[in-house]
UniProtKB/TrEMBL annotation:
Pfam families: TetR_N. Residues 7-67 form the HTH tetR-type domain. The keyword Iron does not apply. SUPFAM superfamilies: Homeodomain-like. Keywords: DNA-binding. It comes from Actinomadura rubrobrunea. Residues 30-49 bind DNA. This is HTH tetR-type domain-containing protein. GO terms for molecular function: DNA-binding transcription factor activity; transcription cis-regulatory region binding.
């Protein structure tokens, strides 16, 4: 089996970071946790992701955004109308971002986590 590419290793690290952020919360996740989840050494994690943990905190939602934009482009290439594809994609992205924020913020401030959907999500869905 050929050795994994740098891109494949980086994706593996981001997958592990996403898993650890969901399991432990962002504040409690260490590079060691991510390395263990990825089956790699800490040194490999630092080589694979130059900014370490801080870069991974950004890499997880950025990957979600990239996937959203790729999906939106695919929808736009399909037979659907442009407005329908944009609305459907935006709702899907909003749901994923909110779910990620809630999961990744777990363990920090339970009252704040409960307040977030009430303050921002419900009004955004129900409108003025």
């Amino acid at each position: 089996m050929p050795p994994p590419t740098a891109d494949a290793t980086r994706e593996r690290i981001i997958d592990a970071a996403e898993e650890c952020f969901a399991r432990f919360g962002v504040a409690r996740t260490t590079v060691g946790d991510i390395a263990t989840a990825a089956g790699l050494s800490r040194a490999t994690v630092y080589r694979g992701v130059a900014g370490g943990r801080d870069e991974l905190i950004l890499a997880v939602p950025l990957r979600t955004l990239r996937r959203f934009l790729d999906g939106l482009a695919e929808r736009l290439r399909g037979l659907r109308s442009v407005p329908e594809a944009i609305v459907e994609g935006a709702v899907e992205l909003l749901f994923r971002v909110i779910a990620s924020l809630i999961v990744m913020d777990r363990g920090r401030d339970d009252a704040g986590t409960r307040r977030f959907p009430r303050t921002y999500v419900v009004p955004a869905i129900t409108g003025p």
